[in-house]
Design goal:
The complex is a heterodimer of chains A (498) and B (286). Chain A has 11 helices and 24 strands. With 498 residues, chain A is α+β, with helices and mostly antiparallel strands. Chain A folds into 3 domains: 102 residues; 78 residues, TATA-Binding Protein, CATH 3.30.310.80; 245 residues, no CATH class. In chain A, α3 runs antiparallel to α7, α7 packs antiparallel against α9 and α8 crosses α11. The longest helix of chain A has 30 residues. In chain B, 75% of the residues lie in helices and 0% in strands. Chain B contains 9 helices and no strands. The chains are: A alpha+beta (498), B mainly alpha (286). At the A-B interface, α3, β8, β11 and α10 of A face α7 and α8 of B. Bound molecules: protoporphyrin IX containing FE.
Chain lengths: 498, 286
Amino acid sequence: MASSSRFSPIFWGRWFWRQLTSMRTALFLLLLLALAAIPGSLYPQRSADPNGVRLYFDQQPEFAALLDSLQLFDVYTSIWFSAIYILLFVSLVGCVLPRTQVHLNALRAKPVETPQKLERMPAYLTAAAKGDQLDRAEQVLNSRGFRVRKLDDSVSAEKGYLKETGNLVFHYSLVLLLIAVGLGGGFSFSGQRVLVEGDTFVNNLASYDAFSPGPLFFENELQPFSMTLEDFEVVYDLRNPANLGQPVDFIANVTLDDGLTNSNSDIRVNYPLEAPGANVFLTGNGFAPVITLYDGVGNIAFSGPVVFLPQDSNMTSLGVIKAPDASPEQIGIIAFFYPTAQELESGAYASIYPDPIDPLLTMNVYLGDLGLDAGIPRNVYALDITDLDLIAGRDGPNPPIELRVGEMAELPGGAGFISFDGLKRFASLDVAYNPGGLWIMVFAFIALVAIVFSLSVRRRRVWVRQLAGKIEYAALARGDDDGLEELIVDLRKEIEGD
Amino acid sequence: MNIVLNEPLSQISLLFVSAAMGLLAVALLMFAFQLARLKDDPTESRFERYGFWVLGAGTVVLGVGVFLRGVAAQRVPWANMYEFAISGALMILTIYLISLRVKDVRYVATFVTGFSLVTLFAAVSLFYVEVKTLMPALQSYWLVIHVVVAIMATGFFAIAAGFHIFYLIKAAGVGRALMDRFPDLRQLERVAYRFNMVGFVAWSFTLIAGAIWAERAWHRYWGWDTKEVWTFIIWVVYAGYLHAMATRGWTGKRAAILGLIGFGAVIFNFTIVNLFFKGLHVYSGL
Ligand code: HEM
């Protein structure tokens, strides 16, 4: 019967568990984890660089599909990466739980009995006895922080329990940290919103341009507040030739209304605003020219600031205006904004400085069905021109419309008028909440303190034995310890007083 | 808010850095002489003594250079690759000179001096940039804390790597006559372990501080940005090294090789990842 029980599931289960919780496996899994993390830095990741992934698919569709099937664009949430760290943490728990039991017993137990053959210990010395020194030895070891056990003819002492405590706390903290990451991510949310100067944002789901909740998010996590962007300022470096015109500070001045009080403050990069239930971060900015568009029958078809997306470091910006209510035909405009415009030889413009010193708006104007009625969601920053007629533009029948602030122009063919009434800035804001953050930090710091103890404390056993005519001193350490000899020499000196 | 940069002063700083390179080169020569002589005469120490004087002088001159760079830029001198490199070299040398007072670590003088010299050479010839104002994402006291501790960790890892290398040379039985004068294998392994331990704790702190800063600057504490990935990889490799040191059959050569892989990753993270990988941490300044 012995042979069948050797291969029973229980046998294999035990065997597997022993393998999994061995140090060798821990080492192997750690190295595997390091290795598995590498591809995530070689290929663009959906979480960090979705655009890069899209580019990959555009340029090498087949290779990209292959990579995708291996989850190489989502390495850190992939099955194989997860499998490694989950195994690692199971192994960790399996390793640390029994060690905790052993350690708790050791903490309660007295130091071990003095071994018979002390001369076999890594550090050992004998000295001629000058009377009974055991009481003195007990006293000295006590004062050095040893836990001491007095035996018939000897003293057994141990110190450095903190080393193992530190080691265990460190490993437990890592487990708790991982749990905090998981749960925190679950309850977290982040939402993006573009806000033009003067506009107000009200914190509810409908107000966000984009919103990504964790799987455990509840809508009532959103606490009521509203926030108005009063002013957006960019500070440029004007004093140093090496980076003239480089932005050195972005400052979004906002008023926050939490229903009880109004407060005014600045949001800057690195300095988010603490709003009720979330932090508000500044992630981007740009220009929002204020435009009014009159259609062919004289009605206002569009009016207000238009968010233009920056295209280069000098803030050449691209914007789209859609006027589906215009008569007799719908009007669509693709416009470029140059904060400081300079005409190139080709007749095109470029922006040569990011601050609006000589702002210019140029526009390509289209007529036709904008396709907004079909019920398909459209990107507000893009205009599909395939079915539209160009009436003014660089390759069109008439030159593009050019406007400076305060100017108005007539659209060709009596399609209407357009005016550039003023210039505002906008801020891209991120509203983010992750309840895990605090706990992650707490466990990380506990782990850090614990590992310092684990690595720096020395666990040592010392024995002093009184024999007829001589005294033996011996010491043993857990792990590598090059101070043992010195320790017993010192001890002998202190005990015997010379 | 507007900071006035001082490019002429930065040029003077560069002069000091170059002078330090000269001194380091002389010290390196002396240490090499010492090694050559030590083989036949175990009592030899003249060259070594002079070498350490020159090394000390080189470190002080480099310190002045780094300090002036900070004054020229009106901030801590570690905000682009050039500055990381000169501050890093200064850190390694300082840690080394201080360690000499605690422990006899003279044996790796050639490695430490050579490594610092190569770092400075790369800094001056490949990474040099004029002083510039900081982009807003870098304007944070976390720059001071996070980066200085990272540089410190690198310093400890680097010195440990020196011990790993001599360990492997000695264990392979190459250059017996000279290597016999080095401490025994156990001793080399033990000292490397000590340096890696401190490096690991410092690196752990770097990781945590980086996450806190990332939460402030990029509104998430961890996003697997390429630099974050490599910081994590390095941390895990050194955790593996520490485990190896506690695993029977994995100490000795294997542990030394793991330590060197870890340090290789540190260098990779600083050079290749900074220069060629895409990510949010774009501050090589090149
Ligand atoms: C997330 C994964 C892990 C990390 C980052 C990690 C990290 C560390 C570090 C830094 C040390 C050094 C402390 C010292 O030497 O005293 C250590 C020690 C130790 N680890 Fe882990 N560990 C992990 C997983 C594991 C697992 C899975 C096991 C068990 C299979 C384990 C068992 C141990 C043991 C027993 C020690 C103490 C070695 C000794 O007695 O000196 N660890 N760990």
